[in-house]
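#lab-general

N.A. 3:47 PM
ok so I finally got the sequence cleaned up, no stray characters, all 371 residues accounted for. can someone with queue access submit it? mine expired

B.Y. 3:52 PM
send it over

N.A. 3:53 PM
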Amino acid sequence: MRSAVELGAARGICAIFGKWLISAVRRRPLPLQCALYSSSRECQRLAKEISEGAFDAVYLDTVRCHALLALLRQKLPHLHIVTDFDDLMSRRASFLTRNRLPLLAGHIGNSLPRLLRLLAEGPFARLVTAHEAAALPRIEADVVARSSATIMLSAIEAVEMRGRLPTASGVKVHAILPAFAVQAEPWKSSSPLRFVFVGGDDLLQNRMAIDHLILLWRTSRPQTPLHIYGRQRRRPPEVPGVHWHGFVENAAAIYCPGSIALVPALVRGGIKTKVAEAWAWGCPVLGNDAAFEGFPVRDYPLILPETAWSPFLLQPAAHAGVWSEAAHRGQEFIRREMSPERFARCWNDIMTPVAVRSARAPGALLRRAAG
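B.Y. 4:20 PM
back already:
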């Protein structure tokens, strides 16, 4: 589904601005990210395509598809529609607002004109996050009410969302972890050690984590190197022991034997897929409580506040047993809770309407339309 900016017509952009203005006057303001994807022409085009497609089920990606969902419910009231939230966006927007943190548009920013992105991430950042924090809860609740099912990555956020809703809507909220296939067995403790962080600084949570790690290496001066992977918008600083690699397509080069993933998560929300990725490659992860939110791994030994990291960073070889235990416990969780087979089974159940489920053999493929 294309945004108003991607469609490019000045008339359409003006119409969306007018729609947002009317919603604000009525004191039911649209979140800006929903307004961007509310083009009447685009929604009508997709609704027509879906109507003519005779689909069993339709998958919509995030709360931004709210306008399309509302139109589909008018035209096809009995259609099985599943909306995938990923993260609870209102929770993250509220966190940014409370903590007076900056806004980074992330991948959505790539479709914005440069000037608009600079304004949204600069002088208007706090105004935008405050607006989204106030506007998103109502729209999220409406999306859940109109959808046949709503999916989140984190069970914690699914519980929070259910708590905001009447029972009839709350039962439609589900949590499904993403799929990760095991790529390598946990490495042996004899491997040379190194620390890794994976993430580009176009996302606020990555930028804050990188800044925290750079400060640690400047002040504590660990002798074990830190390797940072991912595209960086800012110029990487030169810090002893810190190595910048940019984007690396081959994950095996990142999670080679001896690699220990560091995740000092300072922004809560969803799940940190970099944690699961490291476990799938047989690597331990050292992180704080926020890093492991949504991963109920029993007795995992490396959920520690950053204030307790120093012994592990300065003398990693002395903790070989802990690294090994963490790697094995993490990979056990991947095999049990995040296998591709479990993921496919959960999504097949969610995407299959009750009437179709009773008429088809288990595991039958569904035709799928994505907004």
